[in-house]
Amino acid sequence: MASPLLEVKNLVxxxxxxxxxxxxxxxEIRAVDDISLTIDAGETVGLVGESGCGKTTxxxxxxNILKATxxxxxxxxxxxxxxxxxxxxxxxxxxxxxRAHRADIQMIFQDPFASLNPRMTVRxxxxxxxxxxxxxxxxxxxxxxxxxxxxxxxxxxxxTRYPHEFSGGQRQRVGIARALSVHPKLxxxxxxxxxxxxxxxxxxxxLLRELQSExxxxxxxxxxxxxVVHHISDRIAVMYLGNLVETGxxxxxxxxxxxxxxxxxxxxxxxxxxxxSREDRIKLTGEIPTPVNKPSGCPFRTRCWLAREECExxxxxxxxxxxxxxxxxxxx
Amino acid sequence: xxxxxxxADNAPPRPxxxxxxxxxxxxxxxGLARAVDGVSFDLAAGEVLGIVGESGSGKSVTALxxxxxxxxxxxxxxxxxxxxxxxxxxxxxYDQMRQIRGNEIAMIFQEPMTALNPVFxxxxxxxxxxxxxxxISKAEAxxxxxxxxxxxxxxSARRRLHDYPHQFSGGMRQRVMIAMALVCHPRILxxxxxxxxxxxxxxxxxxxxxxxxKHHESDASIILITHDxxxxxxxxxxxxxxxxxxxxxxxxxxxIFADAKHPYTEGLLASLPAMAGPRDEQLYxxxxxxxxxxxxxxxxxxxxxxxxxTDRCRQEEPALHEIGDGQFVRCHLLxxxxxPDSG
Lengths: 332, 343
Hints:
The complex is a heterodimer. Helix content of chain A is 31%, strand content 25%. Chain A is of the alpha/beta class. Chain A has an eight-stranded mixed β-sheet, sandwiched between helices. In chain A, strands 2-1-4-5 form a four-stranded antiparallel β-sheet. Chain B starts with 16 loop residues before the first strand and ends in a 13-residue tail after the last strand. Chain B has a domain of 237 residues: 3-Layer(aba) Sandwich (Rossmann fold), CATH 3.40.50.
């Protein structure tokens, strides 16, 4: 059933750097540099990488909300969404045209404190997308909200309470209910559990997985926690400084990472088991470049133990590796 | 309480730091919030002790209390002793305490951007730490600062002395913090979530650095406060597990991670996605939410979320008792004589 739901093709996002007293444009950052990835209906793609690698920018570009938040942003490439009425490129769409697709693509945010309006009750928050995107009656909306709240594990009485009355995990449940209210096909979840306590994190992860099979959702799961990403994702894409360095089946990437950066990233995760030691870690050296002073050629070469002269010349293309995944390094 | 945390045979003659029955309360609108409630533990010389817990467990307040950095008001250390050798830190005057901070016990914080002063160069800040505690010239202090910054891996340290915190990356700032903390060779380093704000590859470097400096430099004891169980497993010798302002379990890292006994510790470990395990399984969950510090249940703090809860747990607070070779738990079901089906 592997029909693509969303295809990101050669996405490039450049942010303007503003400077000087007149706030004119003094430079550009290539936050996302020629990225392609596909999300099939009903599957979970995990997008991992460290801060500044552009993973959140990819998520925002897919939702077409970059123009609203980053003036002067330049987006190239295509974000093809396969809607019920055929494929459509979301990237060039304006606000009004995009609205027709917003119900299909919903977001869950990292910070459940900042992403819920503190002056709205939980009912108002969850009902809002229904008012915007559907013409359901008040009574119908009420029923939908009630059943959604119950589904995500909140009490019916919670509908009249305000966000500040809830703990972080409960707020994230409200955010999930809001995203689900308009029956999306794709949910972009940007670090949805990283602000939560360990004992609550697993509750939310389980809920997300249950809802996926129940509603046939596809997820783009953006996160930095590799063990969580591996647990929830069918496929994983690893980003480094705006480039996709490795992508493939979750097990392949996690168990047999190919690109040196993926290897280092996975090896750096501390294991909560007895006898876990730091001895056999891959130790990276060197200052971490930022998108502003991005190295030429392979962006990882300044920290890579396999780096050689050729790496400075050009960006290695993604190529098929033994375990089936694609990796952008010719030396592994 | 006397024999706590060290079995007789391998116990060093005297722990470096002894926290005894520490109680810290904060005055809030509707009364008194007891953030830390009767916490006792020892820190041996050269030991790396992890304090783990979720938000509101009292782990950071415990750490801040050791250096008496609890803002008063609204907070107050209402009870207990904190003994550094024979000296009760809670009995010291403000000036005496200043001589301890940075000199005997140093601290690094989670967010190096807020812990460093943005309007002073890092050279000034590291040097200030030296000059506060050593009677040496400014030039000598600068040399020491450079030496320490080099040790923590700041490239071309002497040239960067005049740079300000915002000119460094997060990982480099944390290195500066570590340099500041270690420049006076403290005997105890308290690290409160030192790597939480950092990326995982950077976290790995910082943890390596801390352990390396400990082994090769100062042999300071470290108290590492974190919510990340993986970090504890890899870096600590012993761990204290806190929940609801109380210690729930204490043991060596081996005991905690291979043979956790308290239902909370077990639950925490089980709810992490397993590295090796199958992917398609549901994760174990601890039901419910962390209770607010203002309405902690009576009896056992964990009773509202525990699978094995009994009536006794809801009424009577269990005591922290030893279950073997330095492993302590606070659970009725693990007390000698109670039914053995609790594990």
